């Protein structure tokens, strides 16, 4: 005897524990779009004062948006066909790893003071007229 069973919910093929993630990724995509618009407006407004680190922050926001869109399409495809798309899943994981790597490198750079502390900050204060203790 041989056979095949197909399990489908009323909403699609997504299991009950995975179904809320589809709405979650729509929400996160909209959140990244709002963050990206606010960031872009401030980025353009203060174009003359942009630091090198802020270019990397823009890349992290863009990659985060791209990752959320890919996650949504991965879940939507799985919900419609019942098969997880290997190519989309591979791209999602790769984009997520790149985004996390850049974000962690940014945290390390800021922690070490690169791009935040300028070497001329120490020379701006005047020590004349101050008594020694």
TrEMBL record:
Residue ranges crossing the lipid bilayer per the database entry: 24-44, 56-73, 85-102
Domain GOST seven transmembrane: 20-128
A cellular component annotation (GO) from this entry: membrane
Primary subcellular site in the record, as a coarse category: membrane
Alphabetic keyword roster: Membrane, Signal, Transmembrane, Transmembrane helix
Location in the cell: Membrane
Database matches in InterPro entries: GOST_TM, GPR107/GPR108-like
Topology of the protein relative to the lipid bilayer: Multi-pass membrane protein
Domain of life where this protein originates: Eukaryota
Protein's recorded name: TransmemBrane protein 87B-like
């Amino acid at each position: 005897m041989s056979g095949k069973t197909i399990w489908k919910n009323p909403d699609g093929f997504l299991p009950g524990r995975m179904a809320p993630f589809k709405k979650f990724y729509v929400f996160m995509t909209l959140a990244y779009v709002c963050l990206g618009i606010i960031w872009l407006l401030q980025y353009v407004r203060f174009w003359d004062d942009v630091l090198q680190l802020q270019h990397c922050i823009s890349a992290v926001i863009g990659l985060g948006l791209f990752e959320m869109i890919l996650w949504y399409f991965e879940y939507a495809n799985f919900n419609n066909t019942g098969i997880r798309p290997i190519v989309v899943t591979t791209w999602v994981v790769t984009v997520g790893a790149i985004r996390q790597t850049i974000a962690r490198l940014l945290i390390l750079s800021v922690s070490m003071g690169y791009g935040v502390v300028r070497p001329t900050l120490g020379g701006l204060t005047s020590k004349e007229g101050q008594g020694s203790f």
